[in-house]
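Write out the 3D structure for:
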Amino acid sequence: MRTYRELFRTPEFRPLFLTSTFQVAGQTVSGLALGTLLYTATGSPLLSSLAMFGPSLAQLIGATTLLSAADRLPPRTALAGLLLAFSLGTAAQTLPGLPVAGSFALLLTLGILASLGGGVRYGLLSEILPRDGYLLGRSVLNMSSGIMQIGGFALGGLLVTLLSARGTLLIGAALYLAGAVAARLGFGQRPARAAGRPSPAETWRTNSRLWSSPARRAVYLGLWVPNGLVVGCESLFVPYAPREAGLLFACGAVGMLAGDTVVGRCLPPGLRTRAAVPMLALLASPYLLFVLRPSLPLAAGLVMLASFGFGASLLLQERLMERTPDRLSGHALGLHSSGMLAMQGVGAALAGAVAERTSPATAMALVAALSLTVTLSLTPSLRAGERRSRRREPRARQEPYERR
């Protein structure tokens, strides 16, 4: 599967695309609104960054207790139920007099539930599409995410100005609700991918099995840590440029969209095996220049360039799927998604804490330097994985559906 036309002819890909689009739009609009609301109320860069990205930390709880359900629940029921919960929780953030602690309690609850979302959604994607279509399908979902973030952050900034942060949160809740309806009406009644009851014990067993492989472990770390730390830089856009934060987020989404498009459609297999490490380095390097406190146009260009490096995630996901049995695909992708989002929360907390003691610009440069250091330390393991992937290429073409 090499073309977008082939992809969208796959019947259940269309509702999955629509469901994902509504979810990202709701998350983008409501995240910017809540970050602005708390920054206005408290004046704290730390609380503002945690409001936007802190719920990802709660995914650590879900990833160690709930994740076995990703392969053991019917996908339609799971996706529709999760989006409905996000809609209700986002609407509850608008309650008059809700204290900051209450707002973060809601975010914690939704973050725990969200740990299932990536596993269910991307496990369903691997089930809907043939093996050779996964990278293209995941690329299109990422591209949709980038477009929704471009529009969502731009529209969110406008809506916060015109309607207030609370009014914008209600629009985010409506977008989540539309996604729940799309999931309920668009998917057939597929059975769960794995038998048995979900439980924390089963989650731990499968997590341990996935983590026990050195090759998978290096890929997981490459997916989680450099990405999460750079998102920590992004979490400081509001305190760095309060009135222009939406523009910076939109420029980041443009760069991410470009990176996903190039990786999904343009890179041949030989280059895909070698491009992951350079793209991870690109992800962090431009943020080093923020120590010079660049003007807004230069800052926007640096953010766009850096975000091109998010395409590394597609390359590493493809490598992860090569090393994972089919029946564990949902759990493996859910672990990737939850771990990545949790590290984004760690990155946001770290960047916010550094900014409290220095400045947003200095904190962005320091956290970017840490991300680049992690990438360099992982390079030997990831390069070894590239050599193994190249050695397997001829056999993979003969047996395209066999996983190792």
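The CA atoms of residues 243 and 292 lie 20 Å apart.
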